[in-house]
Design a protein that fits this description.
The complex is a heterodimer of chains A (about 120) and B (about 110).
Chain A lengths: L3 E4 L2 E4 L4 E8 L5 E7 L6 E7 L2 E5 L6 E7 L2 E7 L7 E8 L10 E2 L3 E5 L1
Parallel strand pairs in A: 2-11
Antiparallel strand pairs in A: 1-3, 3-8, 4-5, 4-9, 5-6, 7-8, 9-10, 9-11
Chain B lengths: L2 E5 L2 E5 L4 E8 L3 E9 L4 E7 L5 E4 L2 E6 L4 E6 L8 E9 L7 E3 L3 E6 L1
Parallel strand pairs in B: 2-11
Antiparallel strand pairs in B: 1-3, 3-8, 4-5, 4-9, 6-7, 7-8, 9-10, 9-11
Classes of the chains: A mainly beta (about 120), B mainly beta (about 110).
Amino acid sequence: DTEVTQTPKHLVMGMTNKKSLKCEQHMGHRAMYWYKQKAKKPPELMFVYSYEKLSINESVPSRFSPECPNSSLLNLHLHALQPEDSALYLCASSQAPGSPADTQYFGPGTRLTVL
Amino acid sequence: EDKVVQSPLSLVVHEGDTVTLNCSYEVTNFRSLLWYKQEKKAPTFLFMLTSSGIEKKSGRLSSILDKKELSSILNITATQTGDSAIYLCAVEAGLGNTGKLIFGQGTTLQVKP
């Protein structure tokens, strides 16, 4: 089973709203990732959690706030977003960075529209 | 700066054709190269290539890593319309075990009936 699930599938929010994206995996992976993907572009890494600790923040604006409550769950809290933040947000997980054959498996994504 | 470049950016073929997609990289401390297929939503994993595994095959798809030329190819034989997708190449590199992937721009493949 290489399934990563994400909710919601679609989200429309105003610039003053607060919302959260959720990601879950039950593969026993200890690394989880958030990516942002704009149309016709490759995914761009936002955050990496390794063993439930934030290990990489790619200079993401503070209106995006990640949270890893346990090894299976990853959240992305959104507040005061801008229209240019509209994108597909992908979650991925892998065994652990640096482990042999460490492959990232992606969830289906959340399509976010900011009005 | 680490860089991954794919070519061609787009490709249109007919069913039954064979295609070769290219990926070249300039990175420090190469760890692995991965190929993904992206249709409507999430990238789905195809292959991972490392120094200890430079050739992989699965059905009509195969991939080779050339560490001397710092490149990889993805071959698809007897293409089908279901192969139409964006093919992404990504490289894991850098100091420390960060898990950070550097993606190429992708190759958009359209297979016509």
